[in-house]
Amino acid sequence: MTSRHDAIVLGAGIVGISTAINLRKRGLSVALIDRREPGEETSFGNAGIIQREGVHPYLFPRDLRTIVEVALRRRTEANFHWSSLTSTAPFLWRYFRASTSIGGRRTFEANIQLFARCLSAHETLMEEAGSADLVAKRGWIRIFRDDGAMAAAQSQLDDLAELGLDAGYVDLKELGALEPHIETGRLAGGIHYRDPWTSSDPGALVKSYAELFTSFGGETIKADVSGMSRRDSGWAVTGEAGEFQADQMAVTLGPWSKSLLDTVGIRLPMGIKRGYHRHYRPTGNAYLSRPLVDDENGFVLAPMAKGIRLTSGAEFARHGAPKTPIQLERALPLARDLLPIGDSVEDEPWMGARPVFPDMLPVVGPAPGCPGLWLNFGHGHHGFTLGPATGELLAQMMTGEAPFCDPAPYRAERFG
């Protein structure tokens, strides 16, 4: 079977769905293709925060002690597979080199225009999809266990204040009033980021966007793509269901994007940050109103429809390497010191992979040297936050519309 469309979007996560919706709104016939149902990979397993304040990048640590402890697998916030060294080392070296104060500031400045769009882009979709009830507007809290770490966050607060964002320190009394069931005895205080929104079921929110795409006349196809090639003036992908052709094609496959693009000679320095989550039942009448983020120990506690979601920090390993949820095991006692949580809901933790580039910016724009082929992936920790914004940006570029911001910082050509 062969079918043809104006545009094909490969990948039905938050980024691909948002891209497909925005193309359909601009009048194109669009096929959204994925091997799984929409929203069941990386888009499913995040902390559910639409991080309006998330303009500061997650830089690679540059102090030797932290690097050694991560390499020896002694830290909670990061894990490393020595068996994956040959595949992860090139990316890690580029990530390290990019994580200077100058590089971090460059990424921060490039992030401003995308993050400024994240709430309004989500709001448009959730209102149209009728799923605004899945989102709360209470922000999130970053907790600190010592005064020194709390004081060190001041420069970031200054940056946010200059951008007009609402964030500020809360003492233990204020923290207890915001979240009455957390144990504050071992804490020094926190920061309440008030602008971000949070979802109690990010997977369901993404699926509601996929249903919106279908309601607009878009076609969702479940197929495992095995190859991609040029066809006349356009592109084609093949799978078990046949061949699908289009004038334009957008690759939004997240962590699977690189392997597919390698087959057509587009080689980009993308890496993988794996992550885990597991849900736990609160004990007694305990609850959380908003996510708690413990940066020092690299975990998040987030209120979800299934219970309290405990998420891990980053794990650097081959995409297909066996699961090693050691970070969740280390974080769980620390999480229970903060909030009374009991048994887990699932039999085993969920694992996903975040696609990331060394400069912590996504690639959004045309594929170099391949007319009609477009790229939108590599959002790192912020795919859930930025998917609707970069989906809109790419659709504008694909249809010749003036983009809402300067796309130059996100072009693939920045890697040479």
Automatic annotation (TrEMBL):
Keywords: Oxidoreductase. Pfam families: DAO (PF01266). InterPro entries: FAD-dep_OxRdtase (IPR006076), FAD/NAD-bd_sf (IPR036188). One of its GO terms (cellular component) is cytoplasm. Residues 6-397 form the FAD dependent oxidoreductase domain. GO terms for molecular function: oxidoreductase activity. It comes from the Bacteria. This is FAD-binding oxidoreductase. It comes from Oricola cellulosilytica.
